[in-house]
Amino acid sequence: MTLTTANTDMITVTMAAASTTAANLNTIDAATGVAVGATAITELTGAAADVKTALGSAGITTVVDSSLAVGLTGSTSVADIILVQADSATGVITTAATETDAATLVTLTTANTDMITVTMAAASTDIADLNTINLATGVAVDATAVTAITDTTNVNTIDLTAAGITYHATNALTITGGAGDDNITLRAGGADTVVHAGAADGVDTITDFAFGVGADLFDFTTNLLNGGTAATSTLVAVAPMVVVNDGTASANDVIYTFSGAGDVMAGGSSAATAVANAVTALTSGTDFSSANIAQSDSLLLMLNDGTNSFLFHYVADATFGTTSAADLTLIGIFNGVQTAAIATGDII
């Protein structure tokens, strides 16, 4: 039978150890002037408004040890999630966040023991924000609509395969690392574009880059190539190359093999040894000689060590007849060796 009393009546009520709706608890609270004993209930469920009323009521006595599970039905604003989480009774919260923007979601005060369903909007999102949101829930963050990932705070690690964040399996996704050296892991089967700001922007170590038409792209936001002169064309005659972007040999050229070096550096090359090993490889033949190179020649070249592929920015200095470490800047390291010629569009 349902109580028909009022809060002027002194009815002692002790709740059982069970899941209880906040709406029912509030109704019982209104039927007695004695604080409802609700320390035994194991879960409080309902709309955020009802739950906030129950937790905030002086007429309901709950636990104060953060052991009360709270299930907020429907979607719940981040502001309400924060308010409920702040109550001393609240333990694990289960709900779906209403907001989809990173700026709001990063303010969540929950933990990865809470089950907050988060769906990100179709927008560019910073990796630091994604990581913060991931730590606020035990449910994988739905980032399938995210169109680009940036790194404005120099986290310098972007892993599209990391647990806790779900990206779209195949849609186009642009990744822009932070200043300095970045470690970037791409998706298998996704159309990923890694943006590099220039030769002074450090070394991007890229795992699972897929070479080939329609696969992944490595994009430069600055022109590192020769520009308007024809000097680079002398190398075209002696080294097979792919011409990308504008279809001419004077812009965005990637030379991928050299007859004198077999495009192979010393095995076990690393970021620390790549430039020195590349110099050794390039000077083992005659392609990089004064006969084929002019001062200020500027181009991109890729060599491999049999395990990984290394992308360099080459600029011929005043002593262009002698290739040295001063001519080379390591830009990218790709795990694996391209199995075929670099396709038009791999490097843009």
Descriptive notes:
The structure is a single chain. The chain has 348 residues and is an alpha/beta fold. The protein folds into three domains: 1-96, no CATH class; 99-200, no CATH class; 223-348, no CATH class. The chain has helices at residues 22-29, 48-56, 78-86, 102-105, 127-135, 233-236, 274-282; strands at 19-21, 36-37, 43-46, 60-61, 68-76, 90-97, 115-117, 124-126, 141-143, 148-150, 157-159, 165-167, 172-176, 182-185, 191-196, 204-207, 217-220, 241-243, 253-255, 298-304, 308-315, 328-335. The strands form five sheets. It has an eight-stranded mixed β-sheet with strand order 11-14-16-22-21-20-19-18, covered by helices on one side. It has a five-stranded parallel β-sheet with strand order 1-3-5-6-7. It has a five-stranded parallel β-sheet with strand order 8-10-13-15-17. β19 (253-255), α7 and β20 form a beta-alpha-beta unit. α2 runs parallel beside α3 (78-86). Mean pLDDT is 84; it is low at 226-232 and 238-253.
Write the layout of secondary structure elements.
Blueprint lengths: L18 E3 H8 L6 E2 L5 E4 L1 H9 L3 E2 L6 E9 L1 H9 L3 E8 L4 H4 L9 E3 L6 E3 H9 L5 E3 L4 E3 L6 E3 L5 E3 L4 E5 L5 E4 L5 E6 L7 E4 L9 E4 L12 H4 L4 E3 L9 E3 L18 H9 L15 E7 L3 E8 L12 E8 L13
Parallel strand pairs: 1-3, 2-4, 3-5, 5-6, 6-7, 8-10, 9-12, 10-13, 11-14, 13-15, 14-16, 15-17, 16-22, 19-20
Antiparallel strand pairs: 18-19, 20-21, 21-22
